[in-house]
Structure formats: C-alpha cells, structure tokens
C-alpha cells in the first residue's frame, strides 16, 4: 500500500475514533440532562449526536476502498496490507459496538434508578429525611459507577489509538524497506557486473607488475577498495532482505568457534585474546546463515573497538527462558549518545563501514522473535547480548 494510502487510512481511522469519543461524552451528558430534566440542553445534545452520526456515515463511505475486495476498487495491494486495513477498521468497529452496548446499559440503569426512586418517593417510606438521603446516596453511587466506566472507555480509546499508530508506523517501515530492497538489488546487480572484470584485470596487472613494488602496492589498494565496495553491497542486501528464517537445529558452540576461527588472522594481528564460554550442549533452532552473520558482525564490532589489542569474551547460556549470546570487548565502551543510536541504520562512529552491521544484527534477532541490547561493562568495554526465546532453542539432551 502506498505511503499516501497509508496516511489516508490513518487519518480516516483517527477521525472515526474522534467521532466515537465525542459520541461517548455526549451520551454521558444526555444521561445527566435526563436526570436533571433540562430539556432545552437535551435537545442540543441530541442534535450534536445526530451530526456526529452523519459524519460517521461519511467516514464509513470513505473507508470502503480499504475494505473492498474488488481489484478495480480496493486500495490494498497485498494480503498483509489487507490484514492491516482490517485490523485498523475492525478496532474502530469493536469500540463502536462497546459504546452502543454501554449506552444501552446506561439508559437501562438510569431508567431502573428513576423508576425505583419514583416508587420510593411515592411510597409511605419516603416520609422521613433519612429515607430521602438513602435514595440520594444510591443515586450518587450509580453516578460514580458510570463515571468510572466513562474513564475506562476513554482509556480504551487512547489505547486503541496508540495501537493503530504503532501498526501504521510498522507498515510504513516495511514499505520503505521493500522499496529500498528493490533499489539495493538493482544496484548490487549492476555493481557486481562491473566489479568482476575490474577484479580480473587487477589480478592480471598485479602479475605483470610483480617486479615493481610501488605498482603492486597501488594495485592492492584498488583491490581492497573493490572488496570494501562488495562488502557494502552485501550489507545493504542483508539489511533490506525480507525473508523468514530457514530454521534448523544448530550446535551453538560449533557455530561460534567457526566464526572465531575465520577471524583468527585479524585477531592475531591485533593482539586480541579470545575467551569462549559456551555450553557445548546448547542447541539453537535458527537460520544458520543469519545467526552466523549476527555473531560475525558483533565480533567485528568488538575487534574495531580494540585497535591496540585487548580481550574478546563470547558467552552463551540458557538464562531464564531464553538463550543469550553475549559478545564483550575491553575497548572504550559506549557513550550515552552513541548507545542511544547504536542500532540505527547507517549510524557509525568509524571512518569506514556502512553503519549497517549492528542494524542487521537487530533485524535478524527480531525475525527470530528475540532482541539485542547494548551495555557498558563495569570493568570497561562494551557488551552486546542477543536474546532468543526459549521456545526457539533447546538443550541437546532433550
């Protein structure tokens, strides 16, 4: 669904919620005016309610394209859009049903109270002041209960409004990512088609200039730039990829060891000591490639934080109904401003890189039903923890 259509749907739903909220307030005023016998004000309230009902009818007509299944009339273009439209409109309809049901209950209660009060006032037992006070007390109790119900429904209106806005933001985010994914796929195809011959020519040039160290150095720098460009394309494709995890049972210790072994030359070159504390029997039900990229990105982030060497500690434990994987470094830690934006796409504090590494980690954790968080270690450095729900992981012994 286009961003314009999404905004239109949100505005129509907001208008409908506003009308429903005003109807609810007028219903409360109507009961009070009936109680007080103020007929002139009551007529004004009834007229205002009729105007709101007319507005609701107009809004309902404008919402029809978001309900319509006719391909020529409907606004939504995917099943997910259809479900989103149905959820937003359905929430309003449920609220309207609640308001109408409660209004009928209130009118019934007021009628019963009025009849009971009339009987008591007409009976012989209302001869004393004490009996009159009893009737008034009962009446006030009923009024207070109605006020509490009004307050509860106002809270329900606010909750539904917030929920609808959150769903709208999430749908808009998915639409933006889908558009970005299409663009990234096209760019990646064009770039790689041109990078392949460039890489081949560089390899040929390096062999021919092997006797000239200066030329070889220049060729190596160009090759490194091509490699960095390919990494950037890969990061962009991984970030915009919209696919469900291909789950399998993965021995977590083996996966983490494989990642660390692939980084061994860089770890040795930077004098970084690795400490692995992973339960060897821990099995995770996840997408192998996605989980490997998570661990790899966190490890690379830790390595970048320790250019002069340090300690890299990786732990994985079964903790309180979740599997937690933590990657900690002994670097400078995270400033508050950096920590607040650390998972934002394209945010980086480094001179190189795309700023997508940690954003990719967060997306992969989310599609697995988990989360990732960043914190500073008490002894210095930073730690990143991926938490996967226990229902998606199990012990090998099981």
Automatic annotation (TrEMBL):
PROSITE patterns with a match to the protein in the record: HIS_KIN
GO molecular function, one term: ATP binding
InterPro entries assigned: FlgN-like_sf, HATPase_C_sf, HATPase_dom, His_kinase_dom, HisK_dim/P_dom, HisK_dim/P_sf, Sig_transdc_His_kin-like_C
Domain Histidine kinase: 186-392
Coiled-coil boundaries: 143-177
One Pfam family, short name: HATPase_c
Keywords, in A-Z order: ATP-binding, Coiled coil, Kinase, Nucleotide-binding, Phosphoprotein, Transferase, Two-component regulatory system
PANTHER family hit by this protein: PEROXIDE STRESS-ACTIVATED HISTIDINE KINASE MAK3, SENSOR HISTIDINE KINASE
Protein name per the record: Signal transduction histidine-protein kinase AtoS
Source organism per UniProt: Cladocopium goreaui
